[in-house]
Design goal:
There is one protein chain. The chain is of the alpha/beta class. It has 18 helices and 10 strands. The protein has helices at residues 18-22, 26-58, 64-109, 112-118, 120-161, 163-210, 212-217, 221-273, 279-320, 385-392, 415-420, 436-440, 450-459, 463-467, 485-498, 515-531, 564-570, 572-580, and strands at residues 345-352, 362-369, 373-378, 400-405, 408-409, 422-425, 503-507, 533-537, 549-554, 557-562. A 6-stranded mixed sheet has the order 6-7-8-3-9-10, sandwiched between helices. Strands 2-1-4-5 form a 4-stranded antiparallel sheet, with helices on one face. The longest helix has 53 residues, at 221-273. It binds adenosine-5'-triphosphate. Adenosine-5'-triphosphate is lined by residues 354, 356-357, 361, 379, 381-387. Adenosine-5'-triphosphate binds at residues 354, 356-357, 361, 379, 381-387. This is ATP-binding cassette, subfamily B. The chain crosses the membrane at residues 27-47, 67-92, 144-161, 167-184, 272-290.
């Protein structure tokens, strides 16, 4: 009895926990915090030194020691603060690097339909603008406790100097805090809206750049620019709302501080007049009051930035929570041993519907391919040919039925091991932004010598084209050194030729080839088919009519399968397809 495929459980998402991220390097963090505490203590000592100077001055005592002490505290405080800043920058950048790489790696491991649905621009925004907001959390998370500590310590010293004035100060600050908190509540929502708008702009801009040739050819620059401007306009609106909230914070702070200052001066004046307060103590109190202002500002703006960081964390966590491809038990699962005599690929009553589509792309598809030799999958456009190939590589999974590779259900294979067995050439003949050499050896686990590379390039007729590249095989492809469609197609074929894979899936591999290169293609495929299973999806029947096995598909089903000659005799849709292409019947 066939073993049922395991339930595919997504790997546990590694969510961002800010506390864990911040304490990833406890030694440096402790040092930074201690240095920051020392800097704060230095700042707190200054007004007391001022009080001492005023008292000594009034008593005609020498001031040299006081001034030297004050200068030393100021200089040391600045140095310590700079050192703490450096350490925090180091912690912040390391954290951002870790989060960025984690998000990018996870995005690469997401299932293809999920990535398509999310959009490349939207995903890119997570590692650019969201990561920057997250970076701010490091500064804020250390600034906030220190600012809080400074405020509390300052208030403590102020109580010691004059508790009545401190009470007045606290009341004024309480009014200020209530107003700031009301603003902060609205800030997080606004940051989320801003980040979503940034994502939409990035998405549309990326999509427009990817389709730039079409945009230009159809003189659609104004249309594309207008759509981009509309998205940018929406971003401007929410950013303006955020800006308004942001500008409210310092305005409220200034107002609150001035309110506190006036209250303290009036009360302090009265207490001076009544003899309850000395001038030196009042001067020191005022200095402390002035010193609380930046700390209270840091607290208010810090909480605002924290809201931004938390919103960015939530957005990144939403992405990290998307299940990656594969199965977390993959690592523990032994790689299946190919079953002797089993077909290379076998479809058993496979049905599949694309996400977001109402119509099944495949309905009860069954066919198999031998371990070696060429299988051609043919049929009209939209028949489901590419979808069938995508199921073999487990880019998507069947809604019902099963696909087996080398005798094992694709869901039984660890994903890595499955894909190592398959060389896949997609319809767009994608090259990575890497050197020609790296592009060619993508499917090889071990090193590939120059002689082997040269042989593969010769087989697909690319020797001269690659030699003409500015740095030959070491030219980075994709930007200024791009290849033509046909050259890309042949590079992809050479990559398949060099790969270790036992199964080669080629989706429309000849659509951009001229006659000579189509002949070369046939020779390469014949060579590949001597030792491997080659499955070719082809519109041009001339390239596959010599296939040992032809699978004729239409409307998501297999209409018939067999040799070219057999199908010609018994399968009218195939005959029509052949007739439409005027392929000579053998
Ligand atoms: N990503 C997708 N989302 C929704 N529907 C899709 C998607 N990709 C393909 N389809 C639909 O699935 C059906 C089969 O598409 P598929 O690309 O497999 O056909 P095909 O035979 O390879 O066509 P062609 O020869 O034109 O490449 C079509 O109706 C198509 O519209």
């Amino acid at each position: 009895m066939a073993v049922p495929p395991p339930r595919t459980e997504p790997p546990a998402p590694d969510r961002i926990r800010l506390r864990r991220e911040l304490t990833a390097d406890p030694l440096r963090l402790t040092c930074a915090l201690l240095l920051a505490v020392a800097a704060t203590a230095g700042a707190l000592a200054l007004p007391l030194l001022v009080r001492r100077i005023i008292t000594d001055f009034a008593a005609h005592r020498p001031l040299t020691t006081d001034i030297a002490l004050m200068c030393a505290v100021a200089v040391l405080g600045a140095l310590v603060q700079a050192l703490a800043g450096r350490l925090l920058a180091w912690i912040g950048e390391r954290m951002t690097y870790r989060l960025r790489t984690r998000i990018m790696e996870h995005a690469l491991r997401l299932p293809l339909p999920v990535v398509r649905a999310k959009g490349t621009g939207e995903l890119t925004a997570r590692v650019t603008s969201d990561a920057l907001l997250l970076r701010e959390v490091v500064d804020v998370a250390t600034q906030l406790p220190l600012a809080g500590l400074t405020v509390v310590a300052t208030l403590g010293v102020m109580v010691w100097i004059d508790w009545v004035l401190t009470l007045v100060t606290v009341l004024a600050l309480a009014v200020l805090c209530v107003m700031v908190l009301l603003i902060l509540r609205r800030m997080k929502t606004n940051v989320v809206q801003q980040q979503e708008a940034v994502g939409r702009v990035a998405q549309r801009f990326t999509a427009s750049l990817e389709a730039l040739a079409t945009v230009k050819a159809y003189r659609a620059e104004p249309v594309a620019a207008a759509a981009l401007a509309e998205d940018a306009g929406k971003l401007r609106e929410v950013a303006l709302q955020g800006g308004r909230l942001n500008t409210l914070v310092p305005a409220v702070l200034t107002l609150g501080n001035q309110f506190a200052m006036i209250s303290v001066i009036l009360t302090g004046g009265a207490r001076l007049a009544s003899g309850h307060l000395q001038v030196a103590a009042f001067a020191a109190f005022l200095l402390y009051l002035l010193q609380t202002v930046p700390s209270v500002s840091t607290l208010a703006t810090g909480f605002g930035r924290l809201q931004g960081g938390l919103a960015a964390r939530d957005r990144c966590n939403d992405l990290l929570a998307l299940p990656a491809e594969g199965d977390r038990r993959d690592a523990a699962r032994p790689t299946p041993v190919p079953v002797a005599g089993a077909p290379a690929v076998e479809f058993h009553a496979v049905s599949f519907t694309h996400t977001g589509s109402d119509h099944p792309a495949l309905r009860g598809v069954s066919f198999s391919t031998a371990r070696t030799g060429l299988t051609a999958v043919v049929g009209p456009s939209g028949a489901g040919k590419s979808t069938a190939l995508a199921l073999v590589d487990r880019f998507v999974q069947p809604s019902s039925g099963s696909v087996t590779v080398l005798g094992h259900d694709v869901r039984h294979w660890p994903l890595e091991a499955l894909r190592a067995r398959i060389a896949y050439v997609d319809q767009s003949f994608t090259l990575l932004e890497a050197t020609a050499r790296d592009n060619l050896r993508l499917g090889r686990s071990g090193p590939v010598g120059d002689a082997e590379l040269a042989a593969a390039l010769g087989a697909v007729g690319l020797t001269e084209d690659v030699a003409r590249l500015p740095h030959g095989l070491d030219t980075v492809l994709g930007r200024e050194s791009d290849l033509s469609g046909g050259q890309r197609q042949r590079m992809a074929l050479a990559r398949a030729l060099l790969s270790d894979a036992e199964i080669v899936l080629l989706d429309e591999p000849t659509s951009q080839l001229d006659g000579l290169n189509e002949q070369r293609f046939r020779a390469v495929v014949d060579t590949l088919a001597l030792t491997r299973a080659v499955v070719v999806v082809a519109h041009r029947l001339s390239t596959v009519q010599h296939a040992r096995h032809v699978v004729m598909m239409n409307h998501g089903t297999v209409v018939d399968a067999g040799e070219h000659g057999t199908l010609l005799r018994r399968c009218p849709p195939y005959r029509e397809l052949v007739a439409s292409q005027a392929v000579a019947a053998h």
